[in-house]
Write a structure and sequence with these properties.
The chain is an alpha/beta fold. It has two domains: 165 residues; 151 residues, no CATH class. It has eleven helices and 13 strands. It has a seven-stranded mixed beta sheet, sandwiched between helices. Strands 9-8-10-11-12-13 form a six-stranded mixed beta sheet.
Length: 341
């Protein structure tokens, strides 16, 4: 079942590849075609050839991601491949930003644009909403020929309510594919030989939001317990810190150190899954005196035997890697970095 995804720019592609990895879709099954890298005079020829190659039954690729240079180009290419969608492609998806427009206005413009682009062969179109949440709107569309009522194809539209960059907190000034990942917290662990203060292995966990991540997501802790047991070692909890573009008038400091994010009873009840850890935090009221990172790291280290008193915080955007020891009364002691086999 082949799918085509048409998006506006490189960050959409990074976003999609992150999702595909989470769905265990192999890189070999995905074709990414960035029109911006093709000379203008050759774009139509190469574009047609790439799409033709993808829809060929002998092509093993399952997903074709087409990166355009803006939403108008995304609509143009969708108009161009409509006949292919009817004959060969099961699904086509447009990913667009709403920017400053409302949904109704944007949908109307898309319908008018597609009808104009297909004016030589008039079409009829129906679009209905399938779902929405804090950042996204999801629509499903059906296109038919106006005269014969023959199906041309189905398509989906994903709108970011403002933009992908705002939803994922991407700083557009960062010209690099790492921008998306620098804007989110990622949980990870290390396997440490405490006697020699040597971290022997790292295990990557799930990507969270710009505000938090969770070691209990996925199988991170399960793998960590297994590897620590194999080598008679302990687990160092770690996570990344993004550098967030502050709102106007807001001051923020960043780095590889426990953050000054308030922690409340509600947070503990919602995010701390271990009953013993949760009970200890609520009883000691440590969350009232110190901040979220410290509270979680200190309590986990004291309540879970396999977890080390050492912890790690990394800020990739600043090239900082902090290894420290959590002590009582809000104290942390930083140690020189030593990583090896």
């Amino acid at each position: 079942m082949k799918k085509i995804v048409i998006c506006e720019g490189k960050f959409d592609n990074i976003f999609l590849n992150t999702i595909l990895k989470e769905l265990d879709i192999l890189e070999d099954e995905v074709k990414v075609f960035n029109i911006e890298k093709v000379p203008k005079e050759k774009r139509r020829i190469i574009e047609t050839a790439e799409i033709g190659s993808f829809i060929d039954k002998n092509n093993s690729k399952k997903i074709f991601i087409k990166i355009e240079n803006g939403k108008d180009y995304a609509l143009k290419i969708y108009s161009h491949i409509m006949p292919h969608c009817a004959r060969e492609i099961n699904h086509c998806c447009l990913i667009l930003d709403l920017d400053t427009e409302n949904v109704e206005s944007k949908l109307k413009k898309i319908q008018e644009k597609l009808k104009y682009l297909r004016r030589a062969n008039p079409i009829e179109m129906t679009i209905e909403e399938k779902g929405k949440h804090e950042h996204l709107h999801h629509f499903h569309g059906i296109i038919k020929t106006k005269k014969s009522k023959r199906d041309i194809g189905n398509f989906k539209i994903i709108f970011f309510k403002k933009s992908l960059e705002i939803s994922c907190n991407i700083n557009k000034q960062e010209d690099g594919e790492e921008g998306l990942f620098l804007a989110q917290e990622i949980a990870f662990t290390g396997i440490i030989d405490e006697d020699h203060r040597l971290i022997k292995d790292f295990i990557m966990g799930e990507t969270g939001s710009k505000d938090m991540c969770d070691w209990d997501e996925g199988n991170l802790m399960e793998l960590s317990y297994e590897r620590a047991k194999e080598s008679n070692s302990k687990i160092v909890l770690g996570h990344t810190h993004p550098v967030i573009v502050p709102d106007k008038g807001e001051k923020r400091q960043y780095g590889a150190l426990p953050s000054c994010i308030p922690y409340t009873k509600k947070d503990i009840t919602k995010y701390v899954l271990d009953e013993k850890v949760r009970g200890s935090m609520l009883k000691s009221k440590v969350y009232k005196k110190y901040w979220g990172d410290y509270c979680e790291l200190f309590t986990c280290a004291k309540e879970i035997d396999e977890v080390s008193d050492f912890a790690m915080i990394v800020s990739p955007a600043l090239d900082q890697f902090g290894i420290f020891e959590v002590k009582k009364k809000g104290r942390v002691i930083y140690h020189p970095l030593k990583i090896g086999n």
